[in-house]
Amino acid sequence: MSNIILSVSNISKQYRLGLVGTGTLSHDLNRWWYAIRGKEDPFLKVGGVNDRSQKATSDYVWALKNIDFKVEQGEVLGIIGKNGAGKSTLLKILSRVTSPSTGEIKTKGKIASLLEVGTGFHPELTGLENIYLNGAILGMTKAEIKSKEDEIIEFSGCKMYIDTPVKRYSSGMRVRLAFAVAAFLEPDILVIDEVLAVGDAEFQKKAIGKMQDISKGDGRTVLFVSHNMVAVQNLCSRCIVLENGEIIKDGDTQEAINTYLSIGAITSNFKRVVDHEVKNVYIHDIQLLNDKNEMFNIIKSGDDFNLVIGVKSKKQVDNIIVELGVDGSNGERLVYLSNQLIERVIGLLPGENKIKLQIKKFPFLPGDYALAINLKETNGAKLDNVKNEFRFRVEGGDFFNTGKLNVKSRGKYLLEHDIFKI
């Protein structure tokens, strides 16, 4: 029988756009009048979708809409989505920082939250004093905090500064201490919202290890929000994907990551405009072209195609190096290519230039990928770069002409054969 520690039912959160965050006096009176008559709040029937890129069509917006999920004890649940998707709003509701407009939440035990760097810390108090203050906020007794004091200080790595006011701490030191307090005071549910990104690589690794110990060893629950997909994949047993305030995926971590990365992941024709006064040479557009010179953005494994990079230049340049990287779904670099490796340089003429890369028998597994392109001169002078703004998708193809879709090929083949030609 499952042990549900957190149950979220039909949670929605509505905000008012503009300078007034909730509502005007007339709106509040209107709500009160409907409430005393036992009728539904009239403003819950209005409100736009939480799409920050679109012009508002209403005074109200749904930051969250009809959120339903359950979390079992000991589970590590990842919550991912683009900026503005509603992740932080959801965590604030779960942590009781703010209340939902509709719905209910049922929890068992204590919740500790790390929503922002230094939340709950008083800048004038020392690190040690803030440990006791933060512990008290989390519902711990002085005796409980005292028993964990040495472990908290040791884990935070702030021993030298523990008697120094927190206002003199760096943001990384504050998050180290805040995480140590929340983790070692043994909450039943630990809620973490992206704050680990402030810490250095060594602390992030240690913090992830601690969260794994919390969930697997102690059987406590972790809700983890991050844009670091590698951390999410290593830590979370299940993921929720939010888009425009709604859940679009709830399930296996890798499937959820693929769903998240597929949101706006395909770029059919990348174009941009750069101030020519700022840059003498810049990447103007990027296109994928088939053998008929037609644009496309979904490649079948084993396909031949051309990658065409449009470059504008104010003057003639004869010593251009093009560096091309292909990144996987988690941001890891899979391939690095450069004309410098074959001891060739590319020349540019004033005006618009086209650099064509002929790609033969593309050997990647199905998934979403991104290109990183860097232009520089042979002396190392940087000219322009495009990092992960051009994305494409690979689907299964008959790579070996056997009538079967390619599921085995890896990037190794790419590096062992001369299939890229500039």
Number of strands: 21
Q: What share of residues are in beta strands?
A: 25-35%
User: What is the chains' assembly state?
Assistant: single chain
Biggest sheet architecture = 6 strands, mixed
- Percent of residues in helices comes to 10-25%
Cα end-to-end separation: 60 Å
User: On the 0-100 scale, what is the average pLDDT?
Assistant: 80
Principal-axis shape: globular
Radius of gyration: 26 Å
Low-confidence stretches: 407-422
The strand order across the widest sheet is 6-7-8-4-9-10
How many H/I helices? 9
H/E series, N to C? EHEEEHEEHHHEHEHEEHEEEEEEEEEEHE
Q: What class do helices, strands and sheet pairing give? A: alpha/beta
